[in-house]
Amino acid sequence: MKSTAQRMLNAFLGMHELSWWILTRALCLSCVLLFCGFLLLLEVDMAALESLRLYHIAQSMTQMPQAILLMAIIGVACAEDHFSDT
Asked: What backbone torsions phi and psi does residue 76 show, to the nearest 5 degrees?
């Protein structure tokens, strides 16, 4: 009898090539956005108005990866449903 973790791992490793592509590209884009947002947050000096704009840009860049990953997961689910044999 297989455990739930083994079944999930087998399903994850058996994903279609397009699903892997979507997932890896979304993860790469999310990492780049988080890194750039972190670098902008390091540069923020709250004394100037320009820094306030940078702060808002950095905040947006750190929140956007959540939406990107959610859309990627929906895309992976649709691709897997489309390419499933059953």
From this structure: -65, -45
Give CA separation, 14 vs 1, 18, 25, 35, in Å: 19, 12, 18, 30
Instruction: Quick: pLDDT tens for 43-65.
Output: 776 666 667 888 888 889 989 99
Measured CA to CA, the distance from residue 26 to residue 32 in angstroms comes to 10
Residue spans per domain, the chain: 16-83
Residue type, 26: A
Considering the entire predicted model, what is its pTM? 0.76
pLDDT at 43: 79
CB 43 within 8 A of CB 54: yes
Residue 31, φ and ψ in degrees, nearest 5: -65, -40
